[in-house]
């Protein structure tokens, strides 16, 4: 397990408020309102909006000029210290598998195994596997030509194949590291990324099957049949030198195996079953650290899918793949860092402590409060990343103040927050428009299908998280 306690934006001791609690709470409400105004009405980029609001919040709460820069820069660096590597390595790994034809190989293999009658299940399973390292928007676009081809060949309407695939991508993108939402929330709250990965998969897989697959099929059957639009053309039928299915599958599973190995040996160390000072144990734990596991998998993918299969000079090909992968995620990385700033300011000013006191007075469970705050932020401004990081920043001081959260309970809180951050996807969410436009469906149809699926995934994963939290808290 990767212990991210050092990456907490909140400190273990909640700062004493310098202003009355009602004043601090009013500042928090005004800060959130200003943040939403800048993002939604002014259309300012979330990165700048979060920094501006963080600065104004710090000043309003009484942070002096000499401490202002440290209050901003410190949380930003701590948040990015882990997020940047995880998101960057994950993006490069996904891009390599995408450009090598790995997604198509996996899809065709699974359709062959499941049969055409179960093609929706095959595509959904393929999206689960491919969705581990690649974001929803990029992964869904990569899968679309394959979905179009299967829909044309098998019949039954486009939504029968597209919605289960999109639902699978959403589950992985929302709940499972190395995606930015759960990684950033884990860093801000102080949870272990390895445990967040385990909890995300534990609640995500049944959620995918019920809400992302079964519900998607029901909604597709109840919706007027949609023909395949002519948007992306067709996938290459006979790609030269396609990668081997086993190689691609192994590359997707390798980081999971390494991370689980880390978690397992950490647990065995804690229970005294393996010696803590044994060199071989330390090496295996090191290899299973999430950034190292993703780095190993990415370097191996470079060799197996590019270097070994490429003819001629290889440097330019590798550089292009990496540049193409990293460019789109720079904005996401900066937003997560800015979300860490907001959380750090709330902690440093005592606003977080005031919120923690209020939550304790109301008696609302931390995990429920985190989920509801994320839902409110999601509905208000649309971005799941902003909703998750903001909610995590608001909850971090309350979590720190509680003082009795086990590592597994912290992981449950993180997954509950990111579950709320995907709930109620609607017209202010870029993912909503990506799915609706590429499927050629109306806004009304998207609201009755995609919004319902996203909400069901968010609510069910939260419910399972809360159940697990009750059992372990």
TrEMBL record:
One Pfam family cited in the UniProt record for this chain: GntP_permease
GO cellular component: plasma membrane
Signal peptide: none
InterPro entries for this protein: Glcn_transporter
Transmembrane regions listed in the UniProt entry: 20-39, 46-65, 119-146, 158-176, 183-209, 245-265, 277-306, 326-346, 358-377, 408-427, 447-472
MF-aspect GO terms: gluconate transmembrane transporter activity
Keywords: Membrane, Transmembrane, Transmembrane helix
The protein, known as: GntP family permease
UniProt source species: Glutamicibacter arilaitensis
